[in-house]
Amino acid sequence: MSNPRPQLRPQVTILTSPSPKPDLKFIHFADTHLGSNWPAIGRREQIQVPIYGQAFANVIEAALTHHVDFVLHGGDFVDRPRAPTVAWNRILQELPKLKQAGIPFIVTPGSHDEPESYFDRAGGDVLDVLDRRLGLVNRVDTGRQPTFSFETGSGKRVVVYGLGDHGAEQATELQKLKIMMHEGSEFKILLMHGSVSNMLHFVGPTVKSDTIEELLSSRYVDCVALGHNHRRWQHPQMEVYNPGSPEITSFADAPTIGYHLSHDGTLEEDSRELVEHGYYLVEVNGEIINAQFIPLQTRDVKNIQIHYENATGDQVTKAAKQAISNNLSERAIIRPVFSGRMNPSSSRADINLSEILSLKQKVLYLAYPLLNFEQPLNQLQYAQTSELSTILEQYFASLVGNSAQETAKLAMKILKVYEKKTQTANQEALEIVDQWKLPP
Fold first, then answer.
1. Which 8-state DSSP code applies to residue 3?
2. How many Cβ atoms from other residues are within 10 Å of residue 34's Cβ?
């Protein structure tokens, strides 16, 4: 009879043996979106499709280099069901390398993989073709082939349960899958395209974290491998991992550099976000799971966010040009984001967008600015805001000394979040504090 494991196990434990040979070694990645062409740059020599193929190839090369037992893919293998020829060329170039090395490639379908039209559904999706016709992948999902079982070269039994994208029915489909699960000596993985309810910024098909905790504590599964959310996340206490996409697919995946425009028109940097994209290299030794995130080199994509209060259109224009100029490179892909309140005497029409967008000749791609404007303050509101900021700065001076101005700005940001009276105010405030805690 096997020894019971604690309900919540550490994610990474340092092994005592100097060079232990793991019972299992595998790679977990997701959301490759092969065939994507983001952003759509109107110059043929700068088409972005090969970037996604190269990120895919980098992970396949890592699997071969590390001699892994298998590879997991959490869905959104291709960017659209009718994948372009360039995507098929990359797929048929890379996946046979794994097959030749005897490394199973196990994938569950994401929303981008599954066709919508009647005739396309009748013919099967890309993963069906790769599985049933070519034998290059093992497609797992509830309904047709919910599990894939195999034995590694070292004799370790592995079972992968697949749960693709089922939208609002995700929790129901997981309950169907649970009926097939059992405790045993195999290493068992739930491979899911979707979110767990306590994930930060979770979107898409979601299951409750309590359900996942029950599966892990009952030993029905040993770890949960996710896909769908393009930013990396892992549970702080349970073996639940979301690697994010290996390459940036939109500005939502990209880091943000935050600036604010001071009352005297000076542009000051507030934060510089670090967002890593890559894959997990997982080693299993007995009860110990060591999941190491391996970052990949991605394109130079960033959001340039500028916040201002009582600013004129000319001030915003100059600040935007300065912020973009501070982050220029020939390969940069940049989106300016404006937020705040205009001076009552000015309006968004006074922002010279043409002058800002003239900088596009100095970067690979400059997106049209995202405009998030609040109602302008009247003179009384502006005076009250300035007075409150001064009072807070004087108060914090006795507590934190030289950090008083920075702390006062933090407090004002949090107050403004709660002023909106939205349901997400608590989460937004916590994010402001988290960014403030990041090292410079």
1. P
2. 25
pLDDT at 384: 61
* Structural domains of the chain sorted by starting position, each given as residue range(s) with its CATH number in brackets: 24-250+274-295 (3.60.21.10), 300-377 (no CATH), 378-440 (no CATH)
Q: Are 189 and 225 in contact (CB under 8 A)?
A: yes
Distance between CA atoms of 281 and 116, rounded to whole angstroms? 34
List CB contacts of 119: < 8 A, sequence separation 6 or more. none
Q: Could you tell me the strand order of the sheet in which 187-193 lies?
A: 147-151, 157-163, 187-193, 223-227, 240-242, 233-234
Closest alpha carbon to 247 in 194, 193, 297: 297
CA 140 to CA 196: how far, in whole Å?
A: 19
Q: Say how far apart CA 354 and CA 361 lie, in whole Å.
A: 12
The owner of tokens 């006062």 is: 408
pLDDT at 265: 83
Q: What is the mean pLDDT of residues 248-258?
A: 96
Residue with tokens 């109602």: 375
Contact 340, 320 (CB under 8 A): no
Tell me the Ramachandran region of residue 420: left when phi exceeds 0, alpha when psi lies from -120 to 50, beta otherwise: alpha
User: What are the tens digits of pLDDT across the range 17-43?
Assistant: 344 567 999 999 999 999 999 999 978
Three-state SS for 40? coil
Q: Residue 364: helix, strand or coil by DSSP?
A: coil
Q: What count of residues does the chain have? A: 440
DSSP labels for 126-164?
HHHIIIIIT-S-EE-BTTTB-EEEEE-TTS-EEEEEEE-
